[in-house]
């Protein structure tokens, strides 16, 4: 069942107001009749023109909307200077109301164009169906002179222009929830490495569980890739790295490691390099983003360590890759554990807890319960030390330095961090990142 209707009148010629007014009236009348039981939200998208032209267009739209009492509370006219701005505003309204099934009513010859905008601004969470807005012949003729026929592929330059328009609009948006904040470790020498752990502030993601500096997009979440890319651009500007030389692990909750410059595995939770200016990153929203730095051999790495990856030894697998590929000495490698869920909050079924208990009984609290509390940080530290990493070369502030804490519990600090454990499946993601300075 359709939850929202979008009527696209953005590019219809303003000099045909009488025809457009009748068209809009008939369309709304049909929606009203078909929606007696379940009335969808209705959004009318139009161009915000300058001066008297703008005032006249808004007046005819308002005139056409009068009399639709049953739709009154759910009908909104969205005027903007670009299609990207109008559509993004409507997306915000959809997300505020948790709506996902949308009918788009638009001129036939604008359909291919609209699909490109939708592909960029929405994810697979949303379902769209399209219906033709029956434009009168004079209006249709004007359209044919400026737009592609439906079914013809849009020229690549038109797609590029749409992408540029969206990017420029997103760049113009103010940051949300305060300034962008980066946590840094005193263990990693900043004259050789650029590194940090992000928090949730300073981006443009507006969905509550994803706001505001969400750095991961998937088909199951409402934040599209273009928004995540804009958040990354802002992070790169603040931190000083090149977003075009940015490589994030492809999470598999296992222990495979990618060596930069060699064949990339399909999935991997660790990544290492000795190339300058290349930024490596690992996500975390309860799982640990772990950073590795060898100031002697000038090599670095990043790993994503959830409970499965911790048990599979992803951190030591990353260390071993640095040793075998770049000749690093284990005793020179520095390891920093970033923000992650703490033993104060994190529970696993008893069967999984047994594996952590085997590493060290102190990794499990209330062991005899059905869902014991698990300390994945302690387990990671123990496995690193057993692998030869010096205790003083591991920064895990939950153990070593409460005064300079970067290993916060993500679940305990909703103002600072995202948490899958706390927020459910539509959760945001922060990252740990590191690179060797040029």
From TrEMBL:
Supply one GO CC term from the record.
nucleus
InterPro entries given in the database record: Cu_polyphenol_OxRdtase, Cu_polyphenol_OxRdtase_sf, Cytotoxic_necrot_fac-like_cat
Q: Does the keyword Zinc apply?
A: yes
Supply the EC number(s). Answer: 2.4.2.1, 2.4.2.28, 3.5.4.4
The entry's localization annotation reads: Cytoplasm; Endoplasmic reticulum; Nucleus; Peroxisome
Reactions this protein catalyses: inosine + phosphate = alpha-D-ribose 1-phosphate + hypoxanthine; adenosine + H2O + H(+) = inosine + NH4(+); S-methyl-5'-thioadenosine + phosphate = 5-(methylsulfanyl)-alpha-D-ribose 1-phosphate + adenine; guanosine + phosphate = alpha-D-ribose 1-phosphate + guanine
Any Pfam family from its record, for instance, is: Cu-oxidase_4
What are the record keywords, sorted? Answer: Acetylation, Cytoplasm, Endoplasmic reticulum, Hydrolase, Immunity, Inflammatory response, Innate immunity, Metal-binding, Nucleus, Peroxisome, Phosphoprotein, Transferase, Zinc
Coiled coil spans: none
Keyword match RNA-binding? no
Q: Which domain of life is it from?
A: Eukaryota
Q: Which Gene Ontology BP annotations are present?
A: inflammatory response; innate immune response; regulation of defense response
Which molecular function term from Gene Ontology is one that the record holds?
Answer: hydrolase activity
* Family according to the record: Belongs to the purine nucleoside phosphorylase YfiH/LACC1 family.
Q: Describe its assembly.
A: Interacts with FASN. Interacts with SDHA. Interacts with ATF6, EIF2AK3 and ERN1.
What is the recorded name of this protein?
Answer: Purine nucleoside phosphorylase LACC1
Q: Which organism is it from?
A: Poecile atricapillus (Black-capped chickadee)
């Amino acid at each position: 069942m359709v939850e929202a209707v979008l009527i696209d009148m953005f590019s219809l010629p303003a000099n045909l107001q009488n025809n457009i007014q009748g068209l809009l009236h008939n369309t709304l009348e049909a929606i009203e009749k078909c929606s007696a039981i379940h009335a969808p939200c209705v959004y009318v998208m139009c161009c915000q023109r300058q001066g008297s032209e703008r005032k006249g267009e808004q007046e005819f739209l308002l005139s056409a909307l009068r009399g639709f009492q049953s739709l009154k509370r759910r009908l909104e006219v969205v005027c903007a200077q670009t299609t990207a701005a109008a559509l993004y505003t409507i997306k915000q309204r959809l997300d505020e109301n948790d709506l996902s099934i949308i009918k788009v009513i638009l001129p036939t010859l604008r359909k291919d164009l609209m699909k490109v905008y939708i592909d960029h601004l929405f994810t697979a969470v949303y379902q769209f169906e399209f219906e033709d807005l029956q434009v009168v012949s004079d209006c249709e003729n004007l359209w044919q002179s400026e737009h592609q026929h439906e079914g013809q592929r849009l020229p690549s330059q038109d797609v590029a222009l749409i992408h540029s328009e969206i990017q420029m609009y997103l760049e113009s948006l103010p940051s949300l929830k305060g300034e962008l904040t980066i946590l840094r470790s005193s263990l990693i020498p900043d004259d050789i490495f650029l590194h940090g752990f992000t928090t949730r502030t300073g981006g443009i993601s507006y969905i509550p569980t994803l706001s505001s500096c969400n750095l991961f997009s998937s088909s199951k979440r409402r934040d599209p890739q273009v928004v995540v890319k804009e958040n990354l651009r802002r992070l790169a500007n603040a931190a000083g790295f090149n977003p075009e030389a940015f490589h994030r692990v492809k999470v598999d909750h296992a222990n495979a490691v990618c060596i930069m410059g060699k064949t990339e595995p399909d999935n991997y939770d660790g990544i290492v390099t000795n190339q300058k200016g290349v930024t490596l990153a690992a996500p975390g929203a309860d799982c640990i983003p772990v950073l590795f730095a060898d100031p002697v051999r000038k090599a670095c790495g990043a790993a994503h360590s959830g409970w499965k990856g911790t048990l599979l030894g992803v951190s030591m697998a990353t260390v071993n890759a640095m040793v075998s590929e770049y000749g690093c000495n284990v005793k020179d490698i520095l390891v920093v554990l970033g923000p992650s869920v703490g033993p104060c909050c994190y529970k696993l079924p008893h069967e999984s807890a047994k594996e952590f208990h085997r590493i060290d009984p102190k990794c499990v609290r209330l062991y005899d319960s059905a869902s014991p509390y698990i300390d994945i940080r302690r387990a990671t530290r123990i496995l690193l030390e057993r692998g030869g990493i010096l205790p003083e070369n591991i920064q895990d502030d939950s153990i070593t330095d409460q005064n300079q804490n970067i290993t916060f519990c993500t679940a305990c600090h909703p103002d600072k961090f995202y948490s899958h454990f706390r927020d459910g499946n539509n959760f945001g993601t922060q990252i740990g990142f590191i690179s060797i300075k040029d």
